[in-house]
Amino acid sequence: MVGLGWLRGAAKADTVTSPKSPTDELKQLEHALAAVIWIMSDDVDAADDALHEETSSFHYLGRGVTQFLRSVLGFEQDVMREASERLAAAEASSWADLKRAQKDHKSYQSRLYSPGAEYALCHAESQMMSAVVGVLNESLTESIKGFYKLRKAYFTLDSIMQEEAEFMRKQGGGQSTATNGNAPRRRSMPGSFDEGEFADSRTASQTNLASKDAASVKKQSPDDSDLEFQDAEESKTGTETAANYLGHTISNEEFKLRANGSADTKKVEKEGDLMRTATVTSAKSKASSHHVPEADFFENPMDLFIHSGTNLCYGLVLLIISMVPPAFSKLLYIIGFQGDRGRGIRLLWQATKFDNINGAVAGLVLLSYYNAVVGFCDIVLTEKDAAEDDSTAFSTVKCNDLIDTMKSRYPTSRLWRLEEARKEATNCNLKGAIEILNSNKDSKTKQILALNMFERSLCSMSLHEFELCTESFVECTTLNSWSHPLYIFAAGSAQVELYRKHRISNPEIAKRHKIRATALLRKAPTLTGKRRFMAKQLPFDTYVARKVQKWEEREKEWKVDLVDTIGVSPLEEIIYLWNGYKKMRPEELQTSLKILQWDNATHPEKFEADLDEIGLQSLMHGAVLRYLGKFTEARQLLTDNIVSRDKNVFKGHLYDDWNCPSAYYEMAVISWMEKDLPGSDSKAKLIECEEWLSKVAKWDTSYVLDARIGMKVTTGLDTIKRCRPRV
User: Fold this and answer.
1) Which residues lie below 8 Å from residue 189, measured CB to CB, with a gap of 6+?
2) Pairing state of beta strands 536-537 and 532-533?
3) Mind listing the pLDDT tens digit for each residue in 526-559?
4) pLDDT tens digit sequence for 687-698
5) What DSSP designation does 42 have?
6) Model-level pTM?
7) What residue ranges do the domains of the chain occupy?
8) Does 413-588 carry CATH code 1.10.3470?
């Protein structure tokens, strides 16, 4: 077996059953796809059992997928370790089959792809998942290796996309590729993965899927130039079609119409458009497809697998890299290429048209993306602001249709019910969201239960249902081990609100909540430091530890109880940081305004000259006013108490240093909202918005939660760039 050095690690695959013929290979693929789809029925164990029935590369990849999903849904280190081991075995297996397929003329011969393309895809998928696990690992070394694996996977996927585009170009130009069994053998997939191949992506374009010869492969050693990172050129002059190429297939319905001669086969297709289709998902209609050129291209299930998988993976890579916040921008030097949010999203939407695991995962990625962007960010592109062909714009109709499609495909899955709840929360129906979540607690997969409970925690927090919020966050600690300090801190903060609510009216009840709040808040810092990201403490761990330490120092100085040292509502802070205000109705926003009033604190006089507390209260008060449409009041409040002051006054011992850059971001959001007001100079407001965002992006020092705020800034700047031509 040809080695890939540390890229593949020391792991070796167990016995691999290599196919003896294309028919055997197809049977292996279909069995693996049938097994892995159990995941979408929330039965990961059933999928895992079925995938252990055979030992093909497809099955090894499937085993890696099951453990990978467990790891990213739960963020548990032991699960991540097993995922890494399985993915390393999948890499080794697919690599061996790739090299075999390149040499074996009896291997599957695709009209579109080079021999072994299916295994190159499996290898790239394994590398991508390994990259994610590596980045989530607590080791910086493993994180860097992860980014480099992502780089390797990118160029493999890029080569597959370009080869497919080249085939389509020839078809469109009348240069049809032979389809009979005597068709000339196409060039091979990338083999040696050396830096000479990757330094210039145009080389990959020209060679497409060509590999190094056997001698160069044998010369490769574990200590080659893999660690010499170079930037890849972004422009590709060799194969321009690939930049917009999105695949080429048609819907099941249109497939049948055309096969029966009922459809207009001369319909012109726009290059770069979203596929107008849900894809052919099996080969049941093969017999009638020979007169349908587009369907004929992908009539073989192996080609469908390659096409849908490449769209999923390539789209995902482009999307992830496009969202890297300014705090992590140096990582792009390791990766060597930039993301492309628009193209990535188009490819993912295309992949959802396939009724297979690739389509299902693409659907989850898109819904998670829109939940994060629309739910978490404020300066987002909607259809009214975007160009007609801009796929990055959020469309409520498209997302709702996607959820309905996935529910019809996988009616027993609880993942799509979770997405329904998120949709309701995004539509400011928090009570409706909680009702869905309460009826969605019977999944067989622990990680889905954890996601469901965390979503209920956030919804109840924004709804100011403090008891439900407390119990939900506490229950999260029993379902996963990722962010216990945040869970416990939030639960304690909810108890603080209950204490404040009853402090004067019912001291006895208030005392019970005070005791519980104190216990939870003191416990939260003791849980920090147990999870790390890229060798650094998790941002919310730092946030929690500093917050409680600040209160404990006041406790000693003021000689009062811990809970009585608290100024601005910590629960409202968490609501702000998770953008819970965006999910609130006006009456719920009014409740937040009341909670933010100083007279809720036990000792409000202590905070009259405390710029740290004044800044926090002004930031959240301004955000609530903005959501209520009171833009002038919000701007004035933020300007008077934060923006007009020297940045340095908001830095100090245990200060919440994320407050000032967040205020600048809020000013940008206000400008963004005002551009649509009657009589407003939209262009001037857009420029103003960009200027505020640029100030945050270029903030002179790092601060707690900078990556979190940076993601909002990155999304905002991308949104402005896309909507500028229409303003």
Assistant:
1) 98, 102, 114, 115, 116, 117, 119, 120, 156, 159, 209, 211
2) antiparallel
3) 999 876 665 567 889 999 999 999 999 999 999 9
4) 999 999 999 999
5) T
6) 0.79
7) 16-176, 413-588, 609-727
8) no
